[in-house]
Amino acid sequence: MSSQGANRRVSIAPASIAWHDGVPESTDFGDVYFSRDNGLEETRYVFLQHNRLDERFRALCDGSQFVIAESGFGTGLNFLAAWQCWRDSNAADGATLHFVSVEKFPLTPDDLKQAHDLWPELADLAQELQANYPELVGGVHRLVLDGGRVRLTLFFGDALDGWQELEFKADAWFLDGFAPSLNPQLWVDDVVSAVQKHSKPGTSVATFTAVGRVRRALIAAGFDMAKVPGYGRKREMLAGTFKGNPTSPTETVPVPDTLLPQPDQQPAKSVIIVGAGVAGTQLAHNLAQRGVRVTVVDSASKPGSGASGNLQGALYVKLGVDYSPQTQLALSALLHAQRSYAPLEHNAWFPSGVLQIAYSEAERLRHQKFLANNDYPRSVLRPVTPEQASKLAGVPVAQSGLWFANSGWLKPARLCEQYLKNRHISFQASYHVHTIDYLDGQWRIADPQGQVLVADELVLCAGHRIQELLPKDQYRFKPIRGQVTLVDEESINPPSCVVCGNRYLNPADQGTCLTGATFDLRDDNPELSAGSQQENIGSLMDMLPGVFKRSPSPDEPLSGRVGFRCTTHDYQPVAGQLGAQDYPGQPAPYLLTGLGSKGLSYAPLLAEYLADVITGQPQALPISISRRLRPERCRNQA
Predict the structure, then answer these.
(1) Which portions of this protein are annotated as coiled-coil regions (predicted)?
(2) Which residue of 157, 174, 478, 506 sits 20 to 30 Å from the alpha carbon of 41, by its own alpha carbon?
(3) 497 and 408 in contact (C-beta within 8 Å)?
(4) How far apart are CA 270 and CA 143, in angstroms?
């Protein structure tokens, strides 16, 4: 992504496809995406059979993982075949299939669907993939499929960049792509070295090709390779196993029995999460999907009672004029959140769209520069005129803006409640953490009454109260007060979408519209403030003149709510393990906090990433981004 940051390209060029006799062919490389005879059967023979996937899937234990890596996603046929095999194998409860793939020229959604229509037996899986297929934006995309049992990590961009940015170890490799003679860049020695980097002793590999250059490169990288009979008209293909050092080729290279997981190889972990806001509950949900036993505690009487307790919240981010790492994270988080919330539509998630308006001259110039500097897909965002903005919002809008069609608003407390509904999750309300200890290889927390909870791992998601749980004066986190105002629907012209400017205004729900929020530094007043209410109302009237049917008087009582967000010195979130210097001789707990006012946008992706880290699974964030989230950057400077 570094090259994209330099030239400010955000979108990625799609594959150039020509269809011949119903089969897609790359016009760039002059090769077909799959066999004209029977692409699905070829995939099953080459990749599934020669990696012994069915047998290995069946041998997995509860809570374990299996990682397949692939060198070219293409139409997704190999992924769909592996997913179908995973389902048919009835893998253990809580086991997770990870599929990691890179693709420099991804198919458009229309081309993807046209290819999938060729395989009716994969229709249900193909439709779920199509519904979650990422925008054509460069970088890492994590797709959570099959109720969390399957996780697809797609890197859109150059293969070498992908292998450098992705953190994982494969159990099996699908070395796919076009013929080496037609697409030599895919088979350079650097890529084979990257395959070696992401393998471990016993990792299996299979590839369509039998080209000697490829075989020799894999052997030099430590793979024990052999030529085996190919599929159909292809006389030979390659299969092998990673040994960790160069070896001579052998006639047959079966997957050794040591690859099959042992019953006690990956015992299910247990985790305590302190904090039942949007971050803590989404992390709990994420871990529970992977078979982890989770206990969530919160000092409040119900989940979503702190900063996550507003009646409504908007799903939006403010993207930078320059495509910096911060902007890359914000965009990735937004797109992941849109996919993540989709199953909760009309329950806790309402995809009304979000309109960001140029509420001032300075903001108008900023929008203008943003659009000139970047090339976001129109399906992510598009500029709109005042007339178009007014039509989208259903209320008069005097300014131009940016339209995010796939965003919307949520009910945060209901979201938190929904995410705790899992048999692997237990919730302890009104639990005040008094002590934290690490004894006999486990974390122990206790409340003032002496109720002790024990788990293998501990994650602190306590929002603005995080300082109370950390070593005294060692970390710099700060609470920021935010007050929202509820306006009676009868006194306002409610918009049909979320409208954002120097405030945001949500569509009406249960007779009220929510607007806000203030950003009150150095103010610890937990009570509603008349000044904050008037600040919200005044900013809303400036942003949307005429939005009120009648102007509220300054002394008119208004309802609202005060919450405290947790933020950091650089206003970037924190996700990772605390430093060892504060926990000598023992593991450190994990931290997920500092999301500020963008918790609804950032929490799904950061919860996904932190769950990856805790369970030792492939990571959903590129290394260049994850290193920027480490907690140690928030240590107080001596």
Answers:
(1) none
(2) 157
(3) yes
(4) 24
DSSP string covering 535-600, please?
HHHHHHHHHSTT-BSSPPPTTS--EEEEEEEEEETTS--EEEEPPGGGSTTSPPPEEEE--GGGHH
Domain that holds residue 207: 2-251
Residues 6+ apart with CB under 8 A from 149: 86, 91, 95, 96, 97, 289
Residues β-bridged to residue 100: 69, 153
pLDDT one-digit tens code per residue, 372-382: 999 999 999 99
Max alpha carbon distance in the chain (Å)?
Answer: 88
CATH of the domain at 515: 3.30.9.10
**Helix residue ranges per DSSP H, 528-575:** 530-543
The answer, as to whether pTM is greater than 0.90, is yes
Look-up of token digits 């996937």: 53
Nearest 5°: phi and psi at 343? Answer: -65, -15
Do 505 and 378 belong to one domain? Answer: yes
Task: Please indicate, yes or no, whether residues 391 and 433 belong to a single structural domain of this protein.
Answer: no
- Round to whole Å and give the CA distance between 238 and 229: 8
27-41, 99-113, 249-263, 331-345: which has the minimum mean pLDDT?
249-263
How many structural domains comprise the chain? Answer: 3
Kindly state whether residues 217 and 146 are assigned to the same domain.
yes
Query: What is the rounded CA–CA span in Å between residue 615 and residue 138?
Result: 26
DSSP codes, 464-476: GGGGGGSSTTSB-
Q: Is the peptide bond before 429 cis (omega within 30 degrees of 0)?
A: no
Name the residue among 482, 480, 433 with its Cα closest to residue 594: 480
Can you give the CATH number for the domain in which 190 is found? 3.40.50.150
Rounded to 10 deg, the angle between the 109-116 and 123-132 helix axes is: 170
Distances (CA, A) of 431 to 274, 447, 450, 451: 9, 6, 11, 9
The strand pair at 65-70 and 349-350 is best described as: unpaired
- Per DSSP, 521 falls in state T
pLDDT over 80 at 169, yes or no: yes
pLDDT in tens, 205-216: 999 888 888 888
Q: For the chain, report the end-to-end CA distance as a whole number of angstroms.
A: 34
Q: Are residues 450 and 536 in the same domain?
A: no
Question: CA-CA distance, 403 to 374, in Å (whole number)?
Answer: 15
Q: Of 305, 307, 303, nearest to 428 (Cα)?
A: 303
Q: Which residues contact 124 (CB under 8 A, 6 or more apart)?
A: none
Q: Is residue 563 part of a domain?
A: yes
The string of pLDDT tens digits covering residues 294-331 is: 999 999 999 998 878 889 999 999 999 999 999 999 99
Tokens matching residue 455:
């788990």
